[in-house]
Design brief:
single chain, alpha/beta, TIM Barrel, Chondroitinase Ac, Chain A, domain 3, 2 domains, 9-stranded parallel beta sheet, 6-stranded antiparallel beta sheet, 17 helices, 25 strands, globular, binds (2R,3S,4R,5S)-2-(hydroxymethyl)piperidine-3,4,5-triol
C-alpha cells in the first residue's frame, strides 16, 4: 500500500531542482506554464466559460488559472458541492489545457469577501481583525482558530476531491492558496487575540531562521534586525523596532496559510504557492506603508519571514503590474524561491515579458491577468510568443540552470544595470543589453530606441514598436545560437571588442515543434546587413545563427 501511494504521489505534478533552476514536472516532463488568469467571477459559471475556452486555445495557452471560491463549494456549513470544480476540469481537458486553481478562502485581496455567508455573518465565531481604535475591519482575523479550522477543512476536502477526480489525468497541476493576503487599513491587527500574541516573545523558529540565513536576508529585514542590535529573545517591538507590525503580521498570516496548505497537501501534495500584492521595492522608491498595501502579505521585504513560517508553500509569487517588471523578478527569484508570475499585465508588454521571465529566471510560469478580456486572440502578440515558446519547451527545459541561456526585456526602466547598456549604432546611441555567451560578446539594441533616435537623423525611417524589445538566446554550441524574440537588433563581437572580425556564417528562420527544428527562410543580404546582424521586428520569431571570426590582418 505504501508503495502504491508513493508511486502515485511521485507521478503527481511536483517540483524538481536542476542545477540552479527549479522545474515543474508534469507527467514526468518539465512543464513551463504559458498561462492566463481569468477575471475573478468568470469561472463561477460553466456557461459563462463556454465562449472563453476557444479564445484561450487561440492564444496558445497551455494552462488556465481559475478561481474557486469557498462560498460556492461550501454554501452551507459541512455541505460541499464540487460540480463546478469537475465542470471546469472537464472544460479544460476538452481543450487540452492544464489548470491551476486559485483558492479564494479566508482572504482575497486582503479582505474576506469570498467566505461563505455562514462565515461572514458570524462575527462571534469568526472575529474580524481590528484597527488601532478597535474597529472591525472587513477581514477575518488571522488569529481566529475557528476560521483556520473551517478554511483548512474546506481546502482539505477540495484537494481530496481533486485527487479523486484527477489522479490519472493530472489536469490540475498547482494550487494557489488564498489570494494576495495581508491586512489593509491598519499595519497590525489589534483584536484582543492579536494583542496577546504581540506581547509574547518572537518564536524561536523565526530567530533560528534569521541566524541561519543572516547573510542572504532581504536587505530591509536585515536592516531592521541590525538596528535592534540583532536581539534574539525579546518581543516583536524590541527585535524589529519600527518594522515590528509588518513582521508580526507576516509571521501570523504565513502560519495560517501554511496550515491551510498543509491540510490540502495531506490529501494531494501538488505544488502550492501564494501571490503577493506588491509592497515597496528595494530597487525603486515607492510610496506606501504597511496597511496601505496589505501588511504581512508576501511582499519582497517579508520573503524571509514567509519562507521561515510557511514550509508547505513551495513558491512565493509576485503579481506584477508595476512598470519595473525586471526588478520585481530579480527580487522574487531566489535559490530558495523559484519565480512564478501568476498575474501580470495582459497588454502587448506581456508578449515581451514572457521571454525575459523564462530565459533569465527559469520561471515556473507566466500568466497575464484577465486573459478572457482578450477578444481577438489572433491579433494579440502574446499568442505568437506563446506559440514559439511552447514549440521550444523541451529545448528551454534542457538549458535551464546551465548558464547557457540568457534573456532581456526593455521594461522602460533602468532598474537593473545588467539589463541596460548604451550602444552606438551608426550615428545614434541606443539602449540595449549586452552579455557574453558561448565564444562571443552579444550586443543587443532595442528597436524602439533605434527607430526613435534614427528618426532624428533620417525622418520617416523604421517602424513603430507596439511591443517592447525582448529576447531569449541559447548557446547550443560555442558559436551557434538559438535566438527568439521581438523588436531588437543583435550583433556579435569578439569578447575583447577588437581582436577579430566577427560575422554571421549562416542564419535560418523557422519554427520549433516539440523541440524539433523546422527551418524555413535562409536569411542573408539586406535581412542581415550582409552577415553583420540579426534583426527582429514586431512579430515574435525564432532563428538559429552560426557565427565565425577571422583576423583583421592577414
Ligand atoms: C489582483 C488580484 O489578485 C486579482 O484577483 C484581481 O483582483 C486583480 N488584482 C485586478 O486587477
Amino acid at each position: 500500500m505504501a508503495n502504491i501511494l508513493e508511486k502515485f504521489f511521485n507521478d503527481a505534478p511536483h517540483l524538481r531542482r536542476v542545477g540552479n533552476a527549479m522545474q515543474l514536472i508534469v507527467d514526468g516532463k518539465p512543464f513551463i506554464v504559458l498561462g492566463g488568469e481569468v477575471h475573478n467571477s468568470s469561472s463561477s459559471s460553466l456557461a459563462y466559460m463556454e465562449p472563453i475556452w476557444p479564445r484561450l486555445v487561440s492564444l496558445n495557452l497551455n494552462t488556465v488559472l481559475l478561481p474557486i471560491s469557498w462560498e460556492l463549494i461550501e454554501p452551507e456549513e459541512g455541505k460541499f458541492d464540487f460540480a463546478l470544480v469537475d465542470g471546469l476540469i472537464e472544460g479544460a481537458r476538452r481543450r487540452d489545457l492544464k489548470v491551476i486553481f486559485l483558492w479564494f478562502g479566508t482572504w482575497k485581496n486582503a479582505v474576506s469577501s469570498y467566505t461563505p455567508a455562514w462565515v461572514k455573518t458570524d462575527l462571534k465565531r469568526f472575529p474580524r481583525a481590528q484597527d488601532e481604535r478597535g474597529r472591525n475591519l472587513n477581514s477575518i482575523s488571522c488569529f481566529s482558530r475557528n476560521a483556520l479550522e473551517a478554511d483548512s477543512r474546506a481546502f482539505r476536502l477540495l484537494m481530496r476531491h481533486i485527487r479523486e477526480f484527477d489522479e490519472k489525468e493530472h489536469t490540475v497541476i498547482m494550487m494557489q492558496v488564498e489570494n494576495e493576503v495581508g491586512l489593509l487599513g491598519s499595519s497590525r491587527d489589534h483584536n484582543p487575540m492579536a494583542e496577546e500574541e504581540f506581547a509574547k516573545p518572537v518564536p524561536e523558529e523565526l530567530i533560528e531562521y534569521l541566524k541561519a540565513n543572516e547573510k542572504s536576508l532581504n536587505p530591509y529585514l536585515r536592516c531592521i534586525w541590525e538596528k535592534s542590535g540583532r536581539r534574539t529573545s525579546e518581543n516583536w517591538r524590541e527585535i524589529f523596532g519600527f518594522g515590528a507590525d509588518e513582521v508580526f503580521m507576516a509571521w501570523h498570516f504565513a502560519r495560517y496559510v501554511d496550515s491551510v496548505a498543509a491540510a490540502g497537501k495531506a490529501e494531494y501534495p501538488i505544488p502550492m504557492y501564494v501571490n503577493a500584492w506588491l509592497g515597496p521595492s528595494a530597487y525603486k522608491y515607492e510610496e506606501g506603508r504597511p496597511g496601505e498595501y496589505p501588511s504581512g502579505g508576501p511582499v519582497a521585504r517579508m520573503l524571509d519571514i514567509w519562507r521561515a513560517a510557511a514550509p508547505h508553500i513551495d513558491i512565493i509569487s509576485p503579481d506584477i503590474y508595476r512598470e519595473d517588471f525586471t526588478s520585481v523578478c530579480c527580487e522574487y527569484a531566489r535559490l530558495d524561491n523559484p519565480l512564478f508570475i501568476p498575474e501580470t499585465v495582459r497588454d502587448e508588454r506581456s508578449a515581451a515579458y514572457v521571454f525575459y521571465a523564462i530565459g533569465q529566471h527559469d520561471t515556473i510560469g507566466f500568466s497575464p491577468f484577465g486573459i478572457d478580456s482578450i477578444i481577438e486572440p489572433e491579433k494579440h502578440p502574446l499568442s505568437e510568443s506563446y506559440k514559439i515558446l511552447s514549440g521550444m519547451m523541451p529545448i528551454i527545459a534542457k538549458y535551464q540552470g546551465t548558464g547557457q541561456m540568457v534573456s532581456f526585456v526593455d521594461d522602460g526602466t533602468y532598474g537593473y544595470n545588467h539589463t541596460i547598456s548604451f550602444w552606438r549604432v551608426g550615428r545614434v546611441r541606443v539602449r540595449g543589453f549586452s552579455c557574453e555567451l558561448g565564444d562571443y560578446q552579444l550586443r543587443i539594441s532595442f528597436l524602439r530606441e533605434l527607430s526613435e533616435r534614427a528618426r532624428v537623423v533620417s525622418p520617416g525611417i523604421l517602424h513603430e514598436c507596439r511591443v517592447p524589445a525582448a529576447g531569449l538566446i541559447i548557446a547550443v554550441k560555442n558559436d551557434e545560437y538559438i535566438v527568439a524574440g521581438i523588436n531588437f537588433m543583435l550583433r556579435f563581437l569578439p569578447k575583447d571588442n577588437f581582436s577579430s572580425n566577427v560575422e554571421i556564417l549562416w542564419v535560418d528562420e523557422g519554427t520549433f515543434k516539440n523541440g524539433l527544428w523546422i527551418p524555413e527562410r535562409r536569411l542573408n543580404g539586406d535581412e542581415t546587413g550582409h552577415g553583420t546582424y540579426l534583426l527582429f521586428d514586431e512579430k515574435p520569431r525564432v532563428r538559429i545563427a552560426k557565427v565565425y571570426s577571422y583576423p583583421h590582418l592577414p
